[in-house]
Design goal:
Number of helices: 3
Shape: globular
Order of helices and strands: EEEEEHHEHEEEE
Strand content: 25-35%
Helix content: 10-25%
Number of strands: 10
Structural class: alpha+beta
Length: 159
């Protein structure tokens, strides 16, 4: 297991690796995977837009959707993935402190909207996603198989 922490990313072409990130609340976990090259990456980002702090974005692009997602794809391509084969999944984006109506900043929802916008602008689609609600999720990507697993409240499922 290779752990991806908050505002972090890991890329792997090692078929024995499993990339995992914990405690996806309003944060988003995003995987990119090429099933032919067996190259994949997992990104755990916090906020939608780097314009709120360009210095932090320059220091750590994995903190923001608009800077982290392009870096995820770029690093996957450098490791041998091909754009036309890439499979993208996402999880998280929840409101973990009450009802969505009480979530003034709506960070989780805004993270997911920014992700969809970036993917749309680049003619990429989400294969699967599990976002929203009020739960925390653990997300993993098995590099050997491409299987993305989510775990929440003790229940695991394949995304």
């Amino acid at each position: 297991m290779r752990v991806v922490t908050i505002a972090d990313m890991r890329i792997s072409a090692n078929r024995g690796d499993v990339l995992i990130t914990y405690a996806l609340g309003s944060c988003l976990g995003i995987t990119a995977y090429d099933p032919v090259a067996r190259v994949g990456g997992l990104l755990h980002l916090m906020l939608p837009d780097s314009n709120i702090d360009s210095a932090k974005a320059a220091q750590n692009p994995y903190m923001f959707v608009d800077t982290g997602v392009p870096e995820l794809f770029l690093q996957c391509y450098k490791a041998g993935a091909r754009r036309e084969r890439i499979i993208v999944t996402a999880a998280g984006g929840s409101c973990t402190h009450g009802k969505e109506d009480d979530d003034y900043f709506q960070i989780g929802k805004r993270n997911f909207v920014m992700l969809k916008k970036l993917l749309w602008q680049n003619s990429l689609l989400l294969k699967a996603y599990d976002v929203g609600g009020s739960i925390s999720r653990t997300m993993s990507l098995d590099i050997g198989t491409g299987i993305v697993t989510l775990k929440s409240n003790g229940v695991s499922k394949i995304l």
